[in-house]
Each structure stands twice: as structure tokens, then as C-alpha cells.
Prior knowledge:
mainly alpha; disordered N terminus
Amino acid sequence: MIANENLSILYLISQASLLVQLVMALLAGLSLISWYWIFRKWFQIRAMRSSTGRFERSFWSGGDLNTLYQNAASSRHTCVGMERIFEAGYREFTKLRAKSHDHVAIIDGSRRAMLATHQREMDDLESHTAFLATVGSVAPYIGLLGTVWGIMNAFRGLANVSTASLALVAPGIAEALVATAIGLFAAIPAVVAYNRFTHDIDRIGIRFESFMEEFSNILQRHLR
């Protein structure tokens, strides 16, 4: 029973050297921040997909573009994604059509407005995903640093004893390996989430780009 207590996770953490404890604390902090952004990003992407689906159904149902624009403009501060891209493009289209008869310039101006809004929306979706990638790649090495340091301390302690045995170094090695375990615990969810979010964001970006192409063609037909 005593041996089991001495090898419990909390006991090993409490008995680890200061540097190993600092490494564990850093990894625990990175893990908590990662999980915060994992949940935040998951809800954001889910809301973006839902909003995009609703707007696509409304847009392709054959409704009047002016009505759609008025609805989007009235909720400019709350609309996101494809609806915001539509609002920016149609606003620029109506502005330029009132000032110019150059159809190419009108379509180009509308397209630039949509591209700028598209980039802002994608930047917002991609924000903090780089942090997850960083945690996924760096956390195992930070844990390995704590492990190496802890094992060095464990073997250094053998210099003061006449008879070396596994029982003397086992607690120190176990303490050190906890750092690696915490590093992997921080890294694995971050890597999985980053890969999933990157895939989802790419798919959303493709839907935005397809909409911009199709909407540009619709605006061209409105100028004829």
C-alpha cells in the first residue's frame, strides 16, 4: 500500500524537482488553453456552417436580391460568413452601378469587396488554430525536457549510495516520465483538433469561393 501511494501521480508530481514541476505546470497551462480554444473554435465553426447553410437556402430559393441585401444590411453587425460576403458585394455593386456604366469596373469592384470580406472571415476562422499546431508540435519536447532532467537527477542520486538498486531510481524515473505523459496529454488533442479544424475551414472556404463566382455571374446578368 505504501509503495502504491509513493507511486501515485500526485505524489510523484509533489516529489519532482523544481524544474520538472515547472515543466509540468507549463504543460498543464498549455493544455487548459488548448482545450479552451478547441471548444471555442468548435462552436465557431459549427455556427458558421449553420449560418452558411441557412443563407444558401435563402439565396437559392429565388428571393429578391434587394430584399436579401436589406435583411443582411440591417443585421450587418451580427451576420457572418457568406451573408456578410454577399452584403459587401451587393453594396459595392449598387454603389458603383449608380456612378458608372462600365460593367467590367462594376463587377471588378464588387468582386474586390467580396474578396476582402472573404479574407477577413477566413482570418477570423483560422485565428488561434496556429496555437493548437504549436502546442501539438512543442508540448512533447517540453515534456521530454522534464523527463531527461528528472532521469538525470535520479541517476545523480546514485552517486551517494554504496549499493545501487532499481528501487532507488524507480521513483525518480517515474516522476520524470509523468512530464512526458502530461506533454502527450497536451499535444494529442491539440493535433487532432488542428487537423479537424483545418479540414473544416478549408471546406467552408471552398463554399465561399464558389458562392463568389456564382454571385459574380448573377451580377453580370443584372447589368445586361
